[in-house]
Amino acid sequence: MSEQAIYFEDYELGHVRITTGRTITETDFVVHAGHTGDFFPHHMDAEFAKTTPFGQRVAHGTMIFSIGVGLTASLINPVAFSYGYDRLRFVRPVFIGDTIRTRVTISAKDDDPKRQGSGRVVERCEVINQRDEVVLAADHILIAERKSKAT
Q1: Residue 123's beta-bridge partner residues?
Q2: d(CA 135, CA 68)
Q3: What DSSP designation does 147 have?
Q4: What does 37-80 look like in DSSP terms, one character per residue?
Q5: Which helix (H) or strand (E) holds 35?
Q6: Is residue 95 helix, strand or coil?
Q7: What is the Rg, in whole angstroms, of the alpha carbon atoms belonging to the chain?
Q8: Domains plus CATH for the chain?
Q9: Helix (H, G, I), strand (E, B) or coil at 150
Q10: Max Cα–Cα distance, the chain, nearest Å
């Protein structure tokens, strides 16, 4: 992983990047259930899941969020930090064997009302499956220093 200073002014509205893919496995289901305590049958019981509208086990939404965000972590930016996530939605189910990747689009830039020398950048994160269908969407809010603060 490399490090690069990307200041508020460097982010371009509409810029898009897409991560590499990651195939969801049985092990992912088991490990996530163990970490979170979410052993609901929709995720863990194949026979129960057959009786649901999806007909098979569905990945934990929180797991897809975690993996999808993790896929975006490819660069350390020492002049920005994550402020959080808004508007998280589980759009479509993800199943064992699906391959996901994350499309990140710079969707907004604004002044930060709490920090004079910084701005807020919104990255629209869309986790997509192997059919290019959006399965999860969220807005990632970054606080990024302005170049003027750095000089």
Answers
A1: 106, 140
A2: 10
A3: H
A4: ----HHHH-HHHHHTSTTSS----HHHHHHHHHHHH--EE-TTE
A5: helix 26-36
A6: coil
A7: 18
A8: 9-145 (3.10.129.10)
A9: helix
A10: 62
Record the tokens describing residue 33, joined without a space: 């259930």
**HSE toward the beta carbon, residue 150, CA cutoff 13 A:** 13
Mind listing the pLDDT tens digit for each residue in 122-131? 999 999 999 9
The two structure tokens encoding residue 140: 């990632």
Strand, coil or helix: what is 113?
A: coil
- Which amino acid is residue 104, in one-letter code? V
Q: Which of 3-7, 79-83, 94-98, 146-150 has the lowest mean pLDDT?
A: 146-150
Q: Can you read off the two tokens belonging to residue 151?
A: 């000089």
Tokens of 125: 């994160």
Cα–Cα distance, 145 to 110 (Å, whole number): 12
Alpha carbon distance, N-terminus to C-terminus of the chain:
26
Per-residue pLDDT of 7-61, as tens digits, reads 999 999 999 999 999 999 999 999 999 999 999 999 999 999 999 999 999 999 9
Q: Evaluate whether 87 touches 139 at the Cβ level (below 8 Å).
A: yes
